[in-house]
Amino acid sequence: MSIRLHNTLTGNKEDFVPLHDKKVGMYVCGVTVYDLSHIGHARSAIVFDTIYRYFRYCGYEVTFVRNFTDVDDKIIKRANEEGVDTKTIAEKYISEFNIDMGKLGLEKPSVEPRATDHIPEMIRLISALVQKGFAYQSGGDVFFSVQKFKDYGKLSKRDLEEMQAGARVEIDEKKENPLDFALWKASKPGEPFWESPWGKGRPGWHIECSVMSQKYLGETLDIHGGGRDLIFPHHENEIAQSEAATGKTFVRYWVHNGFVNINKEKMSKSLGNILTIREILKDWHPEVLRLFFLSHHYRSPVDYSEDSFGEAQKGLDRFYTTIHEIQEELKRPLVSQSKVDPTAIENCRSVIESFPARFEEAMDDDFNTAQALGYFYDLQTQLNSLLSLSKGRPTEEMISMLKQGLNHFSMKGWVFGLFREDPERYLAQRKKEGLKRLNLTEQTILQLIEERNLARKAKNWKRADEIRNDLLSKGVVLEDTPSGTTWKVK
RNA sequence: GGCGGCAUAGCCAAGUGGUAAGGCGACGGUCUGCAAAACCGUUAUCCACCGGUUCAAAUCCGGUUGCCGCCUCCA
Asked: CA 20 to 30 Å from A316, out of A120, A135, A210, A391?
């Protein structure tokens, strides 16, 4: 079964056939480094990280390129505000970005090129475009002439004439056509610049991606990705530049992820609701973020809210609890015989054994992580069911099935970047955070449990329930198990 | 104004021709001193509305309504 993916260019789901048998060249637009990255960047990064991982899981050899835009108006503005040079700003936010991505547990791309390291190549490409008549110099600027490129608008499904009629475009006297875009910009005093045939200047935004993708992946890429908002003008312009220069198809499959809203509102500077990855990670485990995103289709918009993250948190806790319990069960001595109903065992077996196939079927279908996650929940239910059949007296058969389940969590979980923690540590950490939030110490809780257990021994249920209710009202849940009383934060 | 997308249970969310995954919540049961957790079961005769195509549609086509995104920097 091959992977099918939705191609923005055609609007259809297509069978993925790479250019070179089992090799995939994938380019994803990274960030402009002028500020901390936000939850939207996190989504894009997580979506493409998952795609990257799944291709590798399927045995593809993937070259994954994700760039840094380190020269840009916003960086210049920021540098001026802080009275430092643009390089300082860029370096700072590249390192912040790397910290965030590290915490999110993202795989390192194969190459992370920076725009400013590719200026000579950009100048070469721009010159070629001028020579071929696709671009023209105007003062110290060079523009791409959109009218010269017949296919302009094919990705964003726009018509040049209609856009011009739209008249929302600012008239720039330097441009022959208001929709023409800058390949090279003359630098103003105080701005960073490079020498070029057109004088001192700096590259336009789009050219870097054409150059860097071509350099690391060749003239035709298998996959090019990014957020939906990049479809126009960024990716449209990349196509124009690249295809005008090479005469070849630039990208075979365009993949775009949906946006993140915050409490049903668009995230924007003007609304002041930008949620940085830094802030998110103060309150939530990185895997909560991943679980949250992966429970939605990558192309749909998602809405961040305390509640929705709380739900993801709950789900993650439950997975780790199951994994932990399996590990504990594996340590218990085997029994040779069990009175457990064999059909119950067989039900568990069929779900556990069919999991990999179902997981792959879902992922092959345009990376349907939400569906795949549903199968993870099914798997979990069956493993819990098995645990409750075993009740601490596992047979060899049960152990083998539990191990199989654990293996699935580990192997398939890797594709999702989930279940990477030691469950015991994860659960302990959750308790610790909970105590901090409730302003309680473990000592207090353990003392109360001790007191309650004495009451229970004396069959003083009234006192025992009183203690339990008291703790519950503070947010602590007690669970009496055969091996003793445990607690957790609600 | 142009282009694109979405509308599935109380909530979140898969499903693009074969008769509604999964999660949260709720309810009933098993277990338990009672609970909690876990497990089992129930919870959408129906997928915004109207019409059409088809043996068959949430899924395709046409229309209506509502919401959102892009068209300007943006993941």
From this structure: A391
